[in-house]
Amino acid sequence: MATVILVRHGRTTANASGMLAGRTAGVKLDETGRAQAARTAERLAAVPLTAVVTSPLERCRQTARALLAEQAGEPTTQVEKGITECDYGEWQGRPLRDLAKEKLWQVVQSQPSAATFPGGESMTQMQARSVSAVRRLDAAFEAEHGPGAVWVAVSHGDIIKSVLADALGMHLDLFQRLNVDPASVSIVRYTESRPYVLATNTHAGDLGWLVPPKSAKRGRSRRTSDAAVGGGAGPVPAPGARS
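^ that's the sequence the OP posted. Answer follows.
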C-alpha cells in the first residue's frame, strides 16, 4: 500500500496570460508559481519521500527541484513521459478565450471521452497512459521499498484530474467536476481491493501523518486494505505534529 502524492506544477507564464501551453517548450514558473512550489515543498518536508517523478516539461521539473530542495534525505528522481501534458495538437499555444469559441470546447466540457484534439491525442488516450504510468510506478516503488513507500508525481492539471477520476471510479465524462490548482497536493493510496483517495486539491495543512509507521517501511503492512465501517479513527499524527 504505497502512497502517491500528486502535485501539479506551480503557476506559469502561460497560466497567467490565459494561453493553453500544452507541450510548448520554454514555459516556466512565474514568480507566483515559484512561491507556490516553495510552499508545497515546505508542506512535504516532513514526509521522507522515496522518489520524486516528474513530467519532462520544464515547469514540472522546476517544481520537482523545489520539492527536492526541502527533503532531508535523497529521494530517487525520475522523468516519466507517461505523465507529461496532454497532446493538445493544434490547440497548443492558443488563447483559451479563442478556444472557448470552438465546437470541440463544449465536447471537452461535457463529454471529454469523445474529445480528440486536432493533430493531438484523445482525452481517453491521455487518461489511459497517465493512469497506467502512475499505477506501474506505484507498484514498483512498493515492491522495492515496502508498503510504507511515499512518492511524488509532479504533473499537469488534466493529467492529475484523470488519475483522480480513475481512483474515484468516475467516468472520464465526469472528470471536469474535479479541480486541481497550481502546486496543489492530491493523495491516492492503491490497495489490492481498491484505490483510496485521501486528499484532493489541497493547498495547506500538515502532511506529517503520511510518515509511515516503522512496521510499514519493510515487509507486510499491519494496516488493512478494507474500508473501516463508520469512517474509522483517521490517521495518527506524526510525533511533534501540531494538533
